[in-house]
Amino acid sequence: MDTPGEQALADLGKLVETYGWAIRHVLGDPAGTIAPFSYTVGLTARGWDELLITGLPTDVADAFIRNAVDEQASTGPFRAGDLTSALTESGAVALLRVEDRSGMTAARALLGDFQALQLVWPDSRDNLPWEMGYRNPPDVQPLFGADWPAS
Fold first, then answer.
1. Domain boundaries, the chain
2. Strand pairing of 83-84 and 93-97?
3. What are the residues facing 64 on neighbouring strands?
């Protein structure tokens, strides 16, 4: 019998097999020491980077990621350092190269080696985390890559 983790990975693999990609949500911890994050599994087969977003409820993260996949299908793949206004009604979302992929365990298990980009969302004043006046504490939206500009 499979453990719950093995079953969840198998279910995710079936979604990737059926739809070409899927979203994995990591809820963080109750103490708030690990922020929630969500990421794709399967975009690598399209020649794209996997996508990751942190600090948002699963329904909001899901919408961001789906919009990002749709945008790439229309305009081509995102690259590290891109800024796009196509994903929100306000402010630009930045694409940051993910250097720490250790938390993306399902992607590693199903894909092996892969690259990823983090969707970095603006605060309520349209500032990004590395801009002067950014209003959110750093633990709200942890960055999984190098400081901006992305390399």
1. 4-120
2. antiparallel
3. none
| Element (DSSP H or E) covering residue 102 | none
Q: Are 93 and 55 in contact (CB under 8 A)?
A: no
CB 24 within 8 A of CB 109: no
CA distances from 52 to 69, 96, 103, 109 (A): 12, 10, 10, 16
- pLDDT tens figures, 35-74: 889 999 999 999 999 999 999 999 999 999 999 999 999 9
- Cα 113 → chain centroid: 16
Calculate the alpha carbon distances from 61 to 35, 36, 51, 54, 133 in Å.
12, 10, 11, 8, 24
pLDDT in tens, 108-136: 999 999 999 999 999 999 999 999 999 99
**What are the tokens at 87?**
């994903």
Q: How many residues does the structure list for the chain?
A: 151
